[in-house]
Amino acid sequence: MARRAVVTGGTRGIGAAISIALKQAGHDVVANFAGNAEAAKAFTDQTGIAALKWDVGDFDACAAGLKEAEDTLGGGIDIVVNNAGITRDGMFHKMTPEAWNDVIRVDLTSLFNMSRPVIDGMRERGWGRIVNISSINGQKGQMGQVNYSAAKAGVIGFTKALAQETARKGITVNCVAPGYIDTDMVAAVPQNVLDQIIAGIPVNRLGKADEIGKAVAFLCSEDAGFITGATLSANGGQYMCG
Ligand code: NDP
Known about the structure:
Elements: E1 4-7, H1 13-24, E2 28-33, H2 37-47, E3 50-53, H3 59-73, E4 79-82, H4 97-125, E5 128-133, H5 136-140, H6 146-166, E6 171-178, H7 184-187, H8 191-199, H9 209-219, E7 231-234
Parallel strand pairs: 1-2, 1-4, 2-3, 4-5, 5-6, 6-7
Helix pairs in contact: 1-9, 3-4, 4-6
Bound molecules: NADPH dihydro-nicotinamide-adenine-dinucleotide phosphate.
Domain Ketoreductase: 3-179
Keywords: Oxidoreductase
EC number: 1.1.1.36
């Protein structure tokens, strides 16, 4: 059955792969983005998926953006994928309040901002899927990423708590925790560091964005209705927890 879906940061990298996987699964999709209009236009031209710009760190902007997405898709949002994320890496003893706040706002507060406006509609309709993109570094911690690790660990706590609240309303809430995936975010990592990282991944390669996209599409499917509050690790065996 076709559902109405919004993917944050859905025009590039992992988010683009998620938007495409949801479309391939038969859903109607809006992809949100922050400011890279050129990438968003290229994505829409290539896929036919509408791209809408708003800042996921801003509650009012999310409420307005979700309303626009509902108008675009012709009804209430059934699927939200909270994928947008940023890094502001640095050792903690040098970390600025801005680097802390920016990451918490975009990577964690965005989950509240994007889920709160749609939750009533999902509860009324008795069906919903919320999938949040965490990270291996939220599971294990990573030096140089106290802000990011804290935000991504918070994503897992958010997921478990909301999953409990919504389970009886037909709404599932899950996380995917990717390891290192070949996107612009990872391209920013210096090559010598990347070589060391790949050496520590049992499958001996970076992940591909569409491997995450397809995992998310499964969690959004009817077949995944008994899976809620879960964190699906997709990291090539780099970190095995739980
Ligand atoms: P990219 O940097 O390639 O893309 C990030 C996307 O998020 C872009 O579409 C960007 O929009 C959007 N975005 C950033 N800030 C905002 C904002 N304030 N409001 C709305 N959209 C925003 O990231 P990846 O594809 O690599 O990562 C996607 C997610 O996966 C992130 O949450 C990341 O933390 C997580 N992750 C990534 C891993 C990896 O190895 N790549 C590993 C583990 C987790 P625009 O195009 O306009 O800039």
